[in-house]
Design goal:
Keywords: Membrane, Signal, Transmembrane, Transmembrane helix. By secondary structure, the protein is α+β, with helices and mostly antiparallel strands. It is built from three helices and 21 strands.
Length: about 300
């Protein structure tokens, strides 16, 4: 009985001789350019001077506070009180997961840690807006708006001539309030106007870009005629090719050889006369003759 009692006492003493680390606020949300307090409390059983470290977790793990010194990016704008870390005038780059580690070498369990997540809230900034100055009637169009700095991410609204646009079922456009896009399937003259975009989130007042003029114009008459003429010419060439092919297949385009050039039958006893058949590409024939000779010899079959 006595050995069992001694074993329990030893095990209990080992359990007590350990460092404990905790935080009173595991998630901190704070506005940009204010001070962030990342709390860390610890308790050791034997070690009066434990080693305190702070690390930040991102793509890798980087030191914030090590060997009683701050890393360069935190030097002069952070302080340690006990194990609690305070970062002054935080920015969006300071957002992330921080880990407080306390090492007490004299304790049986000599390492304890606590994690604190910092979210830096950023109000809306003036978004960048992409609006072309002019576009032709009937073409598709997409306008872009983006605020890359706000946190939480901004939502967007478009205005035309200072009136908010609403994407109803019969509207000639569609909007994505999360991506900031405004899409037109086919613009008309009525879509001409001054367009601007507004970004907003729960942190601060909305911000808007400068309104830009969009003009929807008709195609120039000379361009319309050029497109129509080119289309007609292509259609005519295609039609002629189809007609020639049909004629060739039906035998309508084959020409008879002159009687003087025919080769007599061997039974007649006459010597065959020399035929002077035209060869494609001869110098004396025209491009049209070459075309017909190729057809006669079945070159396009």
């Amino acid at each position: 009985m006595l050995p069992l009692l001694l074993l329990i006492i030893v095990l209990h003493s080992h359990m007590c001789l350990s460092v404990t680390v905790s935080t009173s606020k595991p998630k901190v949300e704070i506005h940009e350019h204010t001070d962030a307090v990342l709390s860390c409390e610890f308790k050791t059983e034997k070690d009066p001077n434990p080693r305190i470290e702070w690390k930040k977790k991102g793509k890798g793990v980087t030191f914030v506070y090590f060997d009683k010194k701050f890393a360069k990016s935190y030097a002069g704008r952070a302080k340690i009180e006990g194990a609690t870390l305070t970062i002054h005038s935080v920015t969006q780059k300071d957002s992330g997961e921080y880990r407080c580690e306390v090492t007490a070498s004299e304790d049986h369990v000599n390492l304890g840690e606590a994690t604190v997540t910092l979210n830096v809230l950023v109000p809306p900034h003036v978004p960048s807006c992409e609006v072309p100055s002019s576009v032709f009637v009937g073409t598709g169009l997409e306008l872009f708006c983006k605020d890359k700095l706000s946190m939480p991410p901004a939502t967007y609204r478009w205005y035309k001539d200072s009136k908010a646009l609403t994407a109803t079922g019969d509207a000639p456009y569609s909007m994505d309030t999360n991506k900031g896009t405004l899409k037109f399937k086919s613009v008309s003259k009525e879509d001409t106007g001054m367009y601007r975009c507004e970004s907003s989130n729960s942190v601060g007042a909305p911000k808007s870009c400068v309104a830009k003029q969009l003009t929807v114009v008709e195609y120039p008459w000379n361009m319309t005629m050029l497109i129509a003429g080119a289309s007609g010419f292509v259609a005519l060439i295609l039609f002629c090719c189809i007609c020639i092919c049909v004629c060739r297949r039906r035998g309508c385009c084959k020409t008879r050889e002159p009687s003087s050039n025919r080769i007599p039958h061997p039974a007649s006893g006459l010597e065959p006369s020399h035929t002077h058949s035209r060869q494609p590409g001869s110098e004396s024939e025209s491009p049209l003759d070459f075309f017909w000779v190729v057809f006669e010899e079945g070159g396009f079959e």
